[in-house]
């Protein structure tokens, strides 16, 4: 896409699939790698420079028939990234979580819900994104980062609804610059 930098991680061993994240060229961003035990098959992570700080953004796809090992890596990744200022989004295929009441069914789903709560992450998508389920979610380390979440019609032939939202972080334009004159002996005359 013209005007955007692409970050992607293709699905290995099969045709198609993977994740892709586009960030406007005008935003300073670079891909990062997580610790080995948190390196997921279908996840991409990058840092966005926002003024004097950095925002870690992650895009994750969690297959409904995921292996125990890969599921553990996703949990490790969320645990690692949640210690930073972050936004984690994607299709997690946990449709049995009632995000408003924070209830779930099943051990695996409850473990994920516990992880989100123990990591002090806020989940912003409260309406169904596929059928009657909330499969696609947006997690943030600070609740005020995300605003104006809207669930829209699917794009193209997708069976998932689009999620539109505003990320509210201070950018380069909000940075204060101070100028000081450097005084030397030559500047002081008597």
From TrEMBL:
Q: Name one GO biological process term.
A: cell adhesion involved in heart morphogenesis
Q: Where is the Endonuclease/exonuclease/phosphatase domain?
A: 57-163
| Gene3D superfamilies for the chain | Endonuclease/exonuclease/phosphatase (3.60.10.10)
Q: Which residues form the signal peptide?
A: none
Q: Name one GO cellular component term.
A: extracellular matrix
Q: Name one GO molecular function term.
A: catalytic activity
Tell me what this protein is called: Endonuclease/exonuclease/phosphatase domain-containing protein
Q: Which species is listed as the source?
A: Ridgeia piscesae (Tubeworm)
Q: Tell me the classification of the organism that encodes this protein.
A: Eukaryota, Metazoa, Spiralia, Lophotrochozoa, Annelida
């Amino acid at each position: 896409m013209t005007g955007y930098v692409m970050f992607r991680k293709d699905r290995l061993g099969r045709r198609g699939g993977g994740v892709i994240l586009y960030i406007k060229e005008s935003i300073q961003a670079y891909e990062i790698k997580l610790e080995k035990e948190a390196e997921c098959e279908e996840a991409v992570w990058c840092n966005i420079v926002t003024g004097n700080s950095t925002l870690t953004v992650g895009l994750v796809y969690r297959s409904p028939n995921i292996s125990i090992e890969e599921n553990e890596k996703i949990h490790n990744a969320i645990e690692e990234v949640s210690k930073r200022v972050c936004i984690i989004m994607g299709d997690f295929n946990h449709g049995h979580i009632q995000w408003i009441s924070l209830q779930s069914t099943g051990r695996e789903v409850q473990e994920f819900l516990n992880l989100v709560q123990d990591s002090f992450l806020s989940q912003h998508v409260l309406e169904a994104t596929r059928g009657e389920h909330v499969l696609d979610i947006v997690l943030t380390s600070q609740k005020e980062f995300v605003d104006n979440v809207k669930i829209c019609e699917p794009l193209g032939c997708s069976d998932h609804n689009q999620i539109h939202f505003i990320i509210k972080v201070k950018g380069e334009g909000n940075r204060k610059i101070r100028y000081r004159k450097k005084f030397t002996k030559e500047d002081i005359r008597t």
